[in-house]
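User: Hi! I have a protein structure encoded as tokens and I'd like to know what sequence might fold into it. I'm fairly new to this, so please keep things simple.
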């Protein structure tokens, strides 16, 4: 019985095991059937991923090449933000923002490395943040790259405590003063100087640089060209830096210091100050005449007495007290004066030497200790050699000829040269004297190059230079741009202005090489020349640009490739209507500025008044100010009751020395807008001065019947054209005031009229000149004896 029960139990266990096995097998089959469609759906994804090992979801990178963090830029002046983005799967676009306000994204060319320049304009003073971010095709974004720039009216404006630190150039630096003997590398020339080097507060100095044969140039951290000058009016002693990167990659900082002395307010006394001193032409030539020009201001409230102005400079004989000018009547309180020392000649060797202008070195005018301290101004006299011989002559007639793949240059030989330097683009070639031709072998084809021929004397002075633009031989089957396209978004706009229009250019090439290009606009403006490098054939690169349209019209931009071959895109045109739309918000639609006259030549100081026109699209209040070359005016407001335009003026501006001045009308609310510059060119001429007044009579005595009539004769002499007022002062009374016009510097004879003597006496007469200066002649006498 026990055996039967055991067999039955074993049978039951076997049946249960079989049932459990069947259930598990069915569940596995069901799971396998459910998983199979998923595997089939995933397969294409796996294949797609394997075709591109570098997934586009990886994060791209981006960096800002220039400007550096902390760089200074000018308010209202566009500058370029150069960026480089990288992504193994290709860069799709670049996003950027100024102070959190996003601009139109820049489309990229899907290349792994994408380089572009984004135009940015800071419309107000202060610190501005610029952020850029790269996007790839998979939607991944880079970490933002951010810099802060400081927008200033003048690069010499003092720094504020909150400003970011000044940028440190990412190149080796070797600060060198322009006066050091260390010369630039062979093939490069660098000259950088301030003139004058010492000024009083309120005066300006001109920073000038002449640089050739180098790779890059930066003035105060901002890229510049090789031959420029910039007027700076620092309020404190300032050292300016010109950074130069040479062709070999080495770099050097050249510095120029402008010493600034504080303006001392003198009351109860005169205070004579030299506000301007310069020579014309700006560089003197040894042995040839130049003019020294000066302007004086009496900042005191009391007229000065007579004083003398001296001009001193170094000659081969040492310090030369070359000339002086006597101000016999002084200068009125808060008044101006000036003059010219004409036809000065220096025999100094080529180079620079100190020069001085000094007022009242005899201390005849009591200005007090503070006033006496500002009576002298130093400046640099730059002298060019006229050559080492009396018959020296520069080279002539530089010509170019294409010879196969070479470019040949010929020229007429100079006389008295010791050697030549031929500058072929960025390459300098030294040549011996009497050479009149050179063959440039295998230059880069299809490019426009600037050729400069310098002739130098034995002393190293420049004898002469010739400059010529030429095209190198045409490319034959070599690297070239094959297509250039430009487009704009949007193409039409109606609404509140200004409005930004985004341009996109696309450049296609057939090989590996570098391309230079620029954007050109319908208003004549053009961008700086930029460079792109293509790593492979059939590549395309997208380059961006923007245009802020401020007024109605139809405009266009085009992309112009300069090298390796000249090729221009079709015009990308847009139309803007800034006044249509009844529901638009209040805005300024147009701002202009002008000055009349634009040019003046005559006696200084000269007072002018800038005027401007502000147009708005409806009623509202506009806030504006005048921004001038000599500073910035206060904020003002003007009310509009309806759409239209109104005229505003700057108020009287008084200028005391020759220069080109400018003013712009800047609107700050309800929207930002600034006009073009209204330029005023002032050429100060020396006022006419009466240098001689004399009176004579012939005969000087008479004995006989009375009454007797006799005549006095006068002579007035001036040193320049002008108008003279005078009167006769006689023993029997004064004449009325009379006017005499001089068309040139000369003598004029005038008659005193009939003088009738009734009785025996000694009669007299003199001439009293009233304007332009006060001058009294000698007193002529006539003795009458009646019988």
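Assistant: Happy to help. Inverse folding works backwards from shape to sequence: for each of the 787 positions I chose a residue that suits the local structure. Here it is:
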């Amino acid at each position: 019985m026990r055996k039967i029960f055991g067999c039955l139990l074993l049978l039951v266990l076997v049946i249960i095991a079989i049932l459990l096995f069947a259930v598990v097998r069915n569940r596995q089959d069901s799971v396998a059937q459910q998983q199979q469609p998923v595997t089939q759906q995933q397969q294409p994804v796996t294949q797609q991923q394997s075709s591109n090992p570098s997934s586009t979801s990886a994060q791209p990178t981006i960096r800002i090449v220039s400007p550096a963090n902390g760089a200074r830029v000018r308010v209202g002046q566009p500058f370029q933000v150069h960026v480089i983005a990288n992504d193994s799967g290709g860069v799709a676009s670049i996003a950027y923002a100024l102070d959190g306000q996003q601009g139109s994204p820049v489309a990229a060319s899907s290349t792994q490395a994408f380089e572009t320049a984004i135009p940015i304009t800071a419309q107000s003073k202060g610190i501005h943040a610029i952020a850029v971010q790269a996007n790839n095709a998979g939607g991944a974004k880079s970490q933002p790259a951010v810099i802060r720039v400081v927008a200033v009216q003048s690069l010499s404006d003092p720094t504020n405590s909150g400003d970011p630190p000044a940028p440190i150039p990412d190149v080796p630096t070797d600060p060198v003063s322009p006066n050091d003997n260390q010369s630039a590398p062979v093939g490069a020339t660098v000259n950088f100087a301030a003139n004058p080097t010492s000024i009083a507060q309120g005066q300006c100095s001109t920073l000038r640089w002449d640089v050739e044969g180098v790779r890059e140039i930066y003035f105060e951290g901002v890229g510049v060209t090789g031959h420029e000058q910039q007027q700076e009016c620092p309020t404190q002693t300032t050292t300016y830096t010109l950074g130069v990167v040479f062709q070999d990659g080495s770099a050097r900082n050249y510095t120029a210091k402008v010493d600034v002395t504080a303006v001392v307010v003198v009351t109860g006394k005169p205070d004579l100050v030299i506000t301007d001193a310069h020579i014309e032409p700006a560089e003197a030539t040894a042995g040839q005449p130049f003019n020294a020009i000066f302007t004086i201001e009496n900042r005191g409230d009391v007229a000065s007495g007579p004083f003398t102005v001296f001009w001193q400079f170094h000659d081969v004989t040492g310090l030369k007290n070359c000339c002086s000018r006597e101000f016999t009547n002084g200068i009125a309180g808060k008044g101006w004066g000036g003059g010219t020392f004409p036809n000065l000649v220096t025999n100094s060797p080529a180079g620079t030497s100190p020069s001085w202008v000094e007022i009242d070195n005899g201390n005849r005018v009591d200005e007090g200790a503070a006033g006496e301290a500002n009576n002298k101004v130093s400046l640099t006299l730059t002298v060019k050699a006229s050559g080492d011989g009396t018959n020296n002559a520069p080279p002539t007639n530089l010509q170019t000829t294409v010879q196969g793949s070479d470019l040949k240059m010929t020229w007429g030989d100079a006389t008295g040269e010791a050697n030549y330097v031929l500058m072929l683009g960025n390459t300098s070639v030294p040549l011996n004297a009497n050479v009149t031709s050179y063959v440039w072998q295998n230059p880069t084809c299809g490019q426009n190059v600037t050729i400069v021929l310098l002739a130098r004397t034995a002393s190293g002075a420049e004898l002469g230079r010739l400059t010529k633009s030429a095209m190198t031989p045409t490319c034959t089957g070599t690297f070239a741009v094959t297509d250039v396209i430009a487009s704009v978004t949007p193409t039409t706009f109606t609404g509140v202005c200004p409005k930004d229009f985004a341009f996109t250019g696309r450049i296609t090439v057939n090989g590996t090489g570098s391309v230079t290009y620029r954007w050109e606009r319908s208003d004549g403006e053009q961008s700086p020349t930029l460079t792109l490098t293509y790593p492979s054939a059939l590549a395309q690169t997208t380059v961006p640009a923007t245009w802020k349209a401020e007024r109605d019209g139809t405009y266009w931009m085009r992309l112009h490739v300069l090298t390796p071959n000249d090729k221009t895109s079709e015009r990308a045109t847009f139309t803007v209507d800034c006044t249509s739309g009844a529901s638009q918000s209040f805005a300024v639609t147009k701002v202009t500025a002008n000055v009349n006259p634009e040019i003046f030549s005559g006696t200084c100081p000269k007072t002018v008044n800038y005027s401007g026109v502000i147009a708005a699209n409806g009623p509202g209040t506009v806030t504006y100010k005048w921004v001038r070359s000599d500073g910035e005016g206060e904020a003002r407001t003007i009310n509009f009751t309806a759409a239209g335009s109104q005229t505003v003026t700057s108020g009287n501006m008084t200028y005391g020395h020759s220069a080109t001045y400018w003013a712009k009308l800047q609107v700050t609310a309800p929207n930002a807008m600034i006009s073009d510059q209204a330029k005023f060119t002032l050429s100060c001429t020396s006022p006419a001065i009466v240098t001689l007044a004399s009176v004579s009579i012939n005969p000087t005595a008479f004995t006989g019947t009375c009454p007797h009539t006799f005549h006095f004769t006068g002579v007035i002499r001036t040193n320049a054209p002008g108008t003279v007022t005078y009167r006769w002062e006689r023993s029997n009374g004064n004449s009325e005031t009379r006017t005499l016009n001089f068309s040139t510097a000369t003598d004029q004879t005038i008659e005193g009229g009939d003088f009738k003597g009734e009785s025996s006496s000694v009669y007299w007469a003199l001439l009293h000149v009233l304007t332009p200066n006060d001058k009294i002649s000698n007193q002529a006498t006539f003795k009458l004896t009646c019988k």
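A useful reference point when you look it over: The radius of gyration is 40 Å. Feel free to ask if any position seems puzzling.
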